Amino acid sequence: MKDQTVLVTGGAGYIGSHACLELLQAGFKVVVVDNLANSKVESLARVQKLAGKTLTFYQADIRDKQALTDIFAKETPDTVIHFAGLKAVGESCALPQLYYHNNVYGTLVLTEVMNAANVKQLVFSSSATVYGESASPQYSEHFPLGAINPYGRSKAMIEDILRDLSASDKLNNVEKPWKIALLRYFNPIGAHDSGMIGEDPNGIPNNLMPYVAQVAIGKLTQLSVFGDDYPTRDGTGIRDYIHVVDLVQGHIKAIAALNGEHFAEGECKAYNLGAGRGYSVLEIIDAFQRVTGKTIPYQMSPRRAGDLAECFANPALALAELNWQVEKDLDDMVNDTWNWQTKNPQGYQ
Ligand code: NAD
Ligand code: WQD
Q1: CB atoms < 10 A from the CB of 50, how many?
Q2: Which CATH architecture has domain 208-239+277-343?
Q3: Is residue 348 annotated as part of the catalytic site, yes or no?
Q4: Does domain 5-190+240-273 match CATH 3.40.1030.10?
Q5: Which among 145, 233, 304 is the best mutation to test ligand 2's pocket, defined by most ligand atoms within 8 Å of the CB?
C-alpha cells in the first residue's frame, strides 16, 4: 500500500496540506490538483520541506475535464482523496450556483474521469453539516440528513451521487466496483506542531478558533460570542473540535480500509470523524487564555442564524471499522493553533 499513488484534490488547502504531509511521511506518492482558489502554493513548499520528500503539483480546476484526464493518464493514481471544494456557509447562501457548480459539478467531473481511468477508490470530505435536526446532540451515521444551507446541501448531494454511483456498479456487475468512504468531519482546528502549516483564512475568519487566534494576536479587537441563551451547560454553543492532524490520520486509515478485505467491493460508507465530546464557546476561550496566557476580550452577541445549540460525534463506527480515534486533546489544539498563528501572523504571505 505504501507505494501507492494518492491523488489529492484541494491538497494545497488547510486540511489537504496536512494530509499531504502525513501521506508523504507514511510512504505514499502524492499528486495534488488544486486551482489555488482558496490556498497558496507555499503550503505545499512547506509540506515538502517538512517531509524531506517531493510531491507533484498541478494547478488545475477539477471541473476542467481535459486537464484532469491528462493528469490521471500521466500519474495513474490508485486512490483519490477529494478535498477540493468551497466551504463558506454564508458565501454559499449568497452565491448558491457557484457552490453547486464548484462542489457538485466538480465532483461529477472528477468521478467521470476516475471511471474512465478505472480508478475506483475514493475518500470524500463530507461534513457533519449534512445532518438534519435530531433529538440527540450526539450524531450517529444513520441519523437523518437535512442540511440547511447551500454549502451543506452541496455535500449532501455529493454523498447521494456517490452512493448512487456505487449502487450502479453493483447493478451493472462491473469487474472493479467503486469503494468509497464518506468522511463526515466535525470541527477541524489546530495545525501541524511544527507551526509551518496551518489554517490561513481569507479576510475575517468565520470560524471560532481562527477568530480567537486573531483576537489573541491583536489583528481583531474582540470576539462576539454568538448566543449565551442556548440550553447548554453555560448557555453557549457546543461543538466537537478535532485536531487537523487527527483528522488526516482518519484519511490514512480510510485508505487502508479501502484496500483491506473488510471493505466490500461496491461499498459507499459514511464515517463520523470527531472526538465524541463537545466544548462550549466559553470553554474554548478559557482554554485559549490558560494555554497561551493571552486575554481574549469578548462580548455576548445574538445567536448566529442556522447555528445548533450542541453537536458532537458518535465516532464508534470509525473506531470499529477504520481503527481510528482522536489522540490529541484541547490543549494540543490550542497550543498548535497559537504556535502557527505566532509564527505566521500574516498566514503564508
Ligand atoms: P480549504 O479551502 O483550505 O481547501 C480546499 C482546497 O480546494 C483549496 O486549496 C482550494 O483552492 C481548492 N479548490 C476549491 N475548488 C476547487 C476546484 N474547483 N478545483 C481545484 N481545487 C479547488 O478548505 P479545508 O478546510 O481544507 O476543507 C477541505 C474540504 O473539507 C472541503 O471540501 C471542505 O468542504 C471540507 N470540510 C471542511 C471543514 C472545515 O471546517 N474546515 C469541515 C467539514 C468539511
Ligand atoms: C463554532 C461555535 C458558533 C464564531 C462551521 C460550518 C460547518 C463546518 C465547520 C465545513 C458556534 C460560535 C463562532 C464566532 C462564535 N465546515 N462562534 N463566534 O458553525 O460549528 O461549523 O465550520 O463543513 O459547515 O458551519 O463552526 O467555528 O463557525 O462555530 O461564538 O465569531 O462558535 O456560534 O457555536 P460551526 P464555527
Answers
A1: 17
A2: Alpha-Beta Complex (3.90)
A3: no
A4: no
A5: 304
